[in-house]
Amino acid sequence: MRQKLFQFAIDNPFPVISTNDSTLGNVLNMVYAIVGAICVLMITFGGFKYVMSRGEPAELAKAKDTILYAVIGVAVVMFAFVVTRFVVRSL
């Protein structure tokens, strides 16, 4: 069993989350894709706000906060992905 799991990890080092019942894997993958797309859009929106702030300190601070929170969101989503991959694989 252990050798099969090791061989699977070598053949497919970054598998998509899956379980015996693939509903959970499909839902999680869809959620991660949606949240990741939202984070990318928020980073883009923060960049747009930064450019359009025209040097006003309050607007610059808001734009930087938007970008910072979006990057934190990406980190949280990546951490959640890693944790759920670990948990689903151990089942």
Fold blueprint:
Layout (H helix, E strand, L loop, with lengths): L1 H10 L11 H30 L4 H34 L1
The low-confidence parts are: none
The chain-level structural class is mainly alpha
Q: Identify the overall geometry.
A: elongated
Q: Give the N-terminus to C-terminus distance in angstroms.
A: 13 Å
Mean pLDDT comes to: 79
The description of the largest β-sheet is: none
Beta strand %: under 5%
Helix and strand pattern: HHH
Q: What's the total number of strands?
A: 0
Helix content: over 70%
Write a brief caption for the model:
The protein is an all-alpha fold. Helices cover 81% and strands 0% of the residues.
Q: What can you tell me about this protein's structure?
A:
The protein is mostly helical and 91 residues long. The chain has 3 helices and no strands. The chain is elongated. It starts with a helix and ends with a helix. 4% of the residues are buried.
